[in-house]
Amino acid sequence: MDFDKILATIGEFGKQQRIQFILVSTICSAWTAVHILCLAMTGVTPGFFCGDRGRTHERDLEHVCGKPCDKYVFDPEVTSIVTEWTLVCGNSYKVGIAQSVYMVGVLIGSYIFSSMSDNYGRRKSFYLGTLLITVFSLASAFSTSFIMFLILRCLTGMCNGGVGLVGFILATETIGPTWRALAGTVVQAQFALGILVFGAVSYLIRDWRLLIGLTSAPGIVFSLGYWMTPESPRWLLTQGRVQEAEDILHYIANKNGVRITRGMLQLDTMETTAKPSGTGKKYGFLDLFRNRELRKRMFILIYTWFTCSMVYYGLTMNSSSLGGNRYVNFMLSGVVELPAYFVCIMCLDRAGRKQTTFWSMMVGGIACLAMLMVPKEIAHVESIKTSMALLGKMGIAAAFNVMYIYSAELLPTVIRNTGMGVCAMAARVGGIVAPAVIPMGEMLAFFIFGGTGFTAGVCDYLLPESLGKPLPETIDDLAASPIDDKDKNFTTTVDEERVHKIERDIDMLSNHNNEEFAEDDEKTRML
Q1: Which alpha helices (DSSP H) does 65-176 contain, by range?
Q2: Residue 106: helix, strand or coil by DSSP?
Q3: According to the 3-state scheme, what is the secondary structure of 6-22?
Q4: How many CB atoms lie under 10 A from the CB of residue 112?
Q5: Which listed residue, of 35, 157, 246, 443, carries a Cα 20 to 30 Å from 491's Cα?
């Protein structure tokens, strides 16, 4: 019995999977969103004037920064790293450096933790990163210098990048294909909810040290989830640790209320021998590009992830031109993502991953290009441009959401986390590039955003559909997997085979006596 068939037997999204999913996804999405966007609130610049010249002087930047000043006085409405280390006028660029340093840390951590999780396990890597985020972030709230703050932010970013990536894999690998798309979308929606919650908390807490401390403290409780979360049985299987994988699957079945014996959880010989027990091959970066089919997938995925991140962060940073209350605008930037995720939920299991990705990228790219064609002379031109920008962000947010699910389903289990790490690194590079695109001017910036979004969508159409297909376990599985949708009988054949197999398993279950169940239950309690 292959892995997806076992999940159908023990429950594709039972009680145990739901508990694990809620815990892990809250950490890797909602909580990490707070750290990624921390500087949006802790790096704000309140009103200020030069104390040497007094409050009576004009306070716009041109006049305040046009003359030397020994002491700047800030409005008391909020404190931030700007007010702490006087990062205004000639030092204002340092706020941007702090965010860039953080994103560099995320880029490095994405690869380190993804490779670590492929070699040493999803659970250990995930909760180690969670604990380190808590330590480094809390320490940054007590920073005594800007340099110390930069170093701690970089370390926080390294762990945050790893937790976000590994957590998504850990949260979804034990979920059956029927629920996998919905679960993946919910993970991304939690990021938007994290934006909303952080905006509300920031409105109530205006002290930057206290804000960082309170939003980091939940990590102490989250780290205790290590003892509530079993290791990914898919990963154990690729390491040749078949007995441990079967034990965890039996544990999940027991928690889901499914009466089943270990004899019914025997994995197919081809899967269990993919790696000899204790001597499993370790896969690295170069293995992503040795196989022709895998190489094609990786190049397209890398470009798409880079584009999604660059356009997403570019449009988000440009949204500050809307004006108004900074806290309301911040929360609205999360609200506009929710309709995109709803569309994903409706389309992923109907239109498929490929079509949903393609059309999302098309909407995002065309909306950005359409902004270039809006005449400046027409009425409400700014409102029209704002609407097009929000539509573009919705399209890109939807594509970004699908890419997490789509990429994980296209990459083999033995190297999935390493491949996802490389994709995440491409996304981080896109996030670093985005701030450099905005100063190029509206016309060129939106031409780049729209052009890359459109071409990425065209490239995505060359990828195979993964809806309803079993996840590839090894690189060799890619050669045997169907690469198009021409075989209309594929799903029907698999479904009939599954039905017959389940019927045989039910017959086996009825023939086992109560002593065998008691023995298995005792082993489960010991586990």
Answers
A1: 81-85, 93-120, 122-140, 146-172
A2: helix
A3: HHHHHCCCCHHHHHHHH
A4: 17
A5: 246
Tokens matching residue 418:
């390493």
Q: pLDDT class for 360, splitting at 50, 70, 90? A: very high
The residue among 275, 272, 201, 258 whose CA lies nearest residue 502 is 258
Question: What's at 387, amino acid-wise?
Answer: S
CA distances from 323 to 353, 376, 384, 522 (A): 36, 20, 15, 63
Residue in the structure block whose two tokens are 């590009």: 289
What is the maximal distance between C-alpha atoms in the chain? 92
Structure tokens at 263: 């004899």
Judged by DSSP in three states, 328 sits in helix
Name the least confident of 124-128, 326-330, 445-449, 506-510.
Answer: 506-510
Tokens of 328: 């309301």
- Local structure of residue 443 (DSSP, 8 states): H
Please say whether the beta carbons of 334 and 192 come within 8 A. yes
Q: Kindly give, in sequence order, each residue whose CB lies less than 8 Å from that of residue 415, ignoring residues fewer than 6 positions away.
A: 118, 283, 287, 288, 475
Helix, strand and coil in the chain, % to nearest 5 = 75, 0, 25
Q: Do residues 484 and 467 touch, judged by C-beta distance below 8 A?
A: no
pLDDT in tens, 163-193: 988 888 888 888 888 887 788 778 878 888 9
Q: Give the pLDDT confidence of 299-341 residue by residue, as tens digits.
A: 999 999 999 998 987 777 766 555 567 787 778 778 888 888 8
Question: Which backbone phi and psi does 457 adopt, to 5 degrees?
Answer: -65, -40
Q: Let me know how long the chain is.
A: 527
- What one-character DSSP code corresponds to residue 474? S
Cα Rg of the chain (Å, integer): 25
Q: Which two tokens stand for residue 521?
A: 């239950």
Contact (CB, 8 A) for 384 and 374: yes
Whole-prediction pTM: 0.73
Q: Angle at CA 513, nearest 5°, toward 509 and 518?
A: 100
What residue has token string 């021998």?
A: 273
Whether 110 has a pLDDT exceeding 80, the answer reads no
Choice between 96 and 293, residue whose per-residue pLDDT is larger: 293
| Tens-digit pLDDT profile for residues 204-227 | 999 999 999 999 999 999 999 999
Nearest alpha-carbon partner for 396 in 427, 442, 441: 427
